[in-house]
Amino acid sequence: MADLILASASPRRRELLQQIGVHVETMPVDLDESVLPGESARDFVSRLACEKAEAGFARSDGRRPALGSDTAVVLGEWIMGKPTCEADAVAMLQALSGRLHQVMTAVAVTDGQRTAVEVVVTDVHFNAISPAQAQAYWESGEPCDKAGGYGIQGLGAIFVRHISGSYSAVVGLPLSETATLLSDFNVPVWQHRQTG
Question: Is the entire prediction scored with pTM above 0.90?
């Protein structure tokens, strides 16, 4: 049986958890992901991660903790979600072009009694992106389900000049912080599975 409920349909988050040896059962939840008036980016991703974890736990058998996560690309005051159309994606990429932005990823774990959350912030500096590149990238199909309209683990890597912080958090789940949280909830990760 899985040790953890993953309240997400993201194949990237599932793969990241499997990478650190966590056995998960995927249980996607459908929530309103709108930013509340006056809500900071950090509070936004933290709230959504907690709501997803709690919704996933509520749908489960209640015997295993649930994990929820949310990622936002942040440029100044602009909290970028997933693009809604080609024009939206191109506008995001053009805004990010040649500039430094932040990726904020929150991960939350709940067991129904308590909920713990961590927010990880990574600085990402982009190369210049031409309108033609942005349009071609949209046509690849990769940006449509990704915050900020790009995936660092795919073709979008060509736009990245450098990052400072957690690479896995930009992909969708900060693995070091996630492993610590899971350990606090007695969910085994790879180092606890080793036998003599």
Answer: yes
